[in-house]
Amino acid sequence: MCKSENFYKPKERGRNSGFLLNPPRFFDFHCAMKKFLLALISALPLAAVADIDRIGGTLAPSSGNIPAIENTGGKNYTVSAKFDLSKIAEKRVVSARLGAVCEMSGGQDTSPSITVSHMGREFDAATLLGAGKIQDTCIDAGDIVNAALARGEKSVEFKLYSKCPDGAVPKITVKHATLVAASNTDVYKLDDILTPIFSGGKIRGESVFPLGGKDGSAARAKLLFAPRKIDAAYTYRSGEKTLLREGRDYKISGNTVEFLEGGAVETVPYSAIYADTKEAAKKNGDFFFFENLGKYAFFAEGKWFHQRDVFFDYKHQGQSFFNLPKRGAKSLPKTMKLLKSGKPVKIVLYGDSISAGANAPFRADAAPFSPTWAKSVEKRLQKIYGKNVELRNRALGGTTIGWGEKNIANLVLPDKPDLVILAFGMNDTCPPETRREKLESMIAKVRGQNPDAEFIIVSSMRANPLWQKRMAVQDEYPKIDKSLECESVAVANVRAAHDALLQRKRYIDMTGNNVNHPNKFLISVYAQTVLKLLEK
Prior knowledge:
It is built from 14 helices and 27 strands. With about 525 residues, the chain is α+β, with helices and mostly antiparallel strands. A hairpin with a 2-residue loop joins β3 and β4 (about 75). It is globular, with a radius of gyration of 23 Å.
């Protein structure tokens, strides 16, 4: 699992000891044996069923004996990471992640960013914490690895280097590099991720969380629409896609799903998520105090929520209850002209952990390995406009808009972007006018280098409303974002979309950590909201 996010830390946390879920009832011998086996399998550790190969890389420095990344004295010292593909040559690789464990040294307090290239072409990036930290990267190398395998190549090599200004960042020593390749398992479909959620009569991958009632009643959840036809219901509880059966595992009345006792879905007791005391919460694992609820709430990063979510593909005849804003006729004219011309277009995403990809299945090596919302946007734009569209992700977990303004010269300007997506807000509690000042400053700095640059400001999803009262100031941020909208600045109001969803679904049905990150379903909302501003 990647460890590159620097999240809000809970005031009180305990070790995750797992949950004891309600045992099924057994009625006859055959049914009992079947259910016993299901219970036995579900009690095993949640290891991915997919074949996961971890291939150690051979590191080579461009100068000296230590594989270090520097940009010093006008020289850019790179690190080469080469991987032998023989272990996966005969496999159907569905995901490949480049992880490089990096140690930062030096006295600077600014954050460095690594750019990664293959065969001379930049394809991804990772922003790291400041000096004195050790951190690993999560670089999506799936397309490159598959292309190399298709050509019959025996190895693949990547170059890692810094584009930050001379002397602006600490030296980055690469301790070791690993290529994590997953094969022979279910993989996401980009068209499913980008199937419109708010219109079109079809939903793909809508998530619900099987949370039991406060009174011990059956686990129920609501879908956005009443299904006309269920195409598929499934979980990734075992690490692979497991199909569910209506009438045996769940039943639907209108848009309400109820999970049936003895079915394949393991429901989560209400008390395992919300506890009245610290002592009770510690038995469940890590937790935050939800002051607006007056309870201690379970918290988990990685794949925990993803593997317990239940997903539905279905058709419906419901009326749209929200419309994602389209690009105005005169909005982002230079970006759209570049995109339609087929010429190179450089896009930089700059934001916090949500944009860095927190809780995306890909980053947790979890089926179906669906990507960050940024990667979905890049893949769709490349499909529409061609491979000359390049998106560099310079986001970093745990950051605020103040950090963004401070580091933009080091992390964004060196890319010389045509379009910058500014996606800060989840970690902020600053006054609204401070947000305006920081956004205006970042826009001015980019335009100082490239007067033609254009911008998309992302209004962040909502933090859990049950969490902290101080997060209420974020309600004012979309108004600030809207006030900056003009021909060269567009706004992707994810918060408005999230709020519309929350009118029909619970927060826990769409979260990756129960506090402030999206799950697979809500990640797709991010991608769809931004793409509305860039599609033809």
